[in-house]
Amino acid sequence: MVSLPSGGPDLAGFHNGCSQCSQSIAFKCLSNLEKNPSFGLAKIKTAGRVPELDGIRGVAILLVLIWHYVGCTVEPGHRDLAFFIWKGTSLTWCGVDLFFVLSGFLIGGILLDNRDSPRFFRTFYLRRSARIFPPYYALVFGTFALVWTGFGDFPGSSPFLDGQSSLPSYLFYLQNFVMAESGSWGFRPLAITWSLAVEEQFYLLLPLAIYWTPPRFVPWLLVFGIFECWATRIVAFHLHPNPVLATYTLLPFRCDALLAGALLSWVARYKHLFLQPLKDAAIRAGVIAMLLAGYLALIALGTGTGSHQAAYWGYSWLALIGACLIAICLVDTDSFIARLFRARLLRYFGTISYGLYLVHEIVHHTAFWIMTGSSHPKLSTLFELAITAFALCVSVLIASFSWHYFERPFLRRIQSVSEY
To answer: Would you state the pLDDT for residue 346?
Structure first.
C-alpha cells in the first residue's frame, strides 16, 4: 500500500455556514414528496440544518484523523497487533472522498437553487471566500512565518528552504499542480491543502458550467464529467511522469466524486422518485451490503492513494458510497444510517471539521518535534501514543475555538450582507 498524506478537503465546502440553505432545502423537500409528488426544490428557501449531513461530515474528518494519526504512523510487524491495526485503517484516507461528495452535493444544490439570481456569482463567491479564506490563510501565513523568522528546522520546512515549495502556489491554490509536477508533497505542514486546492478550482468552474448550461442539459453535463474524469484518470495513471500524486491530487482526475454529489443534488430536486426505492428497508440493506463488500475488497487488495486499484475503480466506488449514504439520509430519516449520523458527537466533529482538518497535521508533527526531536510521528510506544492523544486534544481545542470565536462570527456577518 502506498502511504501518502491525505486530507479532507473543504472541509469548508461540506461545512456549515453558507451551505445551511442547501442542506435544509434537500431535506425539507424530500420530506414532502408524499404530500405532493410534483414537489420541487428549485425555488424553495428554508432555514435550518440537516443534522445527518453534519454527522456525515463528522465521520469524514474522523476518518482523516485516523489515517494521519494511526494509518500513516503505526509500524506493522508480521501478523502482529500492529499489522491488523494498520490493515484496518489502511483505507481511512477515504475521508477525503466523502468530503468531496458532500461538498459537491451542497455546493451543487446552492448553485441549482440560485441559478436565476441576479447576484448569482457575486453572492456565491463572496460566501465561499468568507467560509474558506480566513482559516486557510491564517494557516498558510502562520506556518511560513515560522520558517521566515528562523525556525529552519520547523517540521517539513526543508522543501520550502530548498525551493521545492513556494508561497505563491499556496496563496493561489495551485499547490496540487506543484505536488504533481515535482512528485513531492512539499511543505509538510501544508501538504493536506492539496484537497482545498481541488475544491477551490471546482468552485471556480462549476458555477460557470451550471450558469451557462441550459437546465435540461445540466444532468448530462454532470454524467459526462464523471465518466470523463474516470477515463482520463486511467490514462494519466499510465502516462503521467508522477502518476501516484497526479491521479490523487489533480482536479481533472478527482472531480468524479464532486460531480457525483452535484448530480445527486440535481436528482433530489428534479427526479426525486429515483431515490424512493431506498425507502424500502430490504433494498436499502442490499445496497449497503454491496457497498460494504466493495469497501472491504479495496482493503483486502491493499488499495493505497494513487494505486492502480484506486485509479481504475476505487475512487469511483468510494464516491458511490458517499452518494448513497447521503441519499439514504434524505429519503428515510428513521433508518439506522440516518440515526447514526445524528449522533451528537459526530455532528460536533462535523461542525468543527474545517478548522480541525487544517490544524491537525501541523499540531501532530509539531508535538512530536518538541517532545522527541523528530518531526516524523510514529505510533509504536506508549509515549508516542500519549503524544498522539495530546496532539488530537490540542487540535480539537484549536478547531473549537476557531469555529466559535473566529469562523462563525465572521461568516454570519458576511451572510447578513450577501443575499441571492
So the answer is: 96
Name every residue whose Cβ is closer than 8 Å to that of residue 117 and which is 6 or more positions away in sequence. 123, 420
- 414: its cell numbers: 458576511
Comparing C-alpha atoms, which of 196, 220, 195 is closest to residue 209?
A: 220
- Contact between 361 and 189 under an 8 Å Cβ cutoff? The reply is yes
Cβ atoms of 29 and 268 within 8 Å: the answer is: yes
Q: How far apart are CA 378 and CA 367, in angstroms?
A: 11
279 by Cβ neighbours in 10 Å (0-12 / 13-18 / 19+) ranks as middle
Q: What is the mean pLDDT of the chain?
A: 86
Q: Which three cell numbers stand for residue 265?
A: 443534488
Whole-angstrom Cα distance, residue 316 to residue 320? 6
Query: Cell numbers at residue 389, please?
Result: 492523544
| SS3 state of residue 214 | coil
pLDDT of residue 17: 44
Whether pTM exceeds 0.90: no
Secondary structure element (H or E) that encloses residue 302, with its range: none
How far, in Å, are 153, 354, 364, 396, 419 from residue 402 at the CA level? 27, 10, 18, 10, 25
What is the Cα–Cα distance from 320 to 399, expressed in whole angstroms? 29
Average pLDDT over residues 117-123: 94
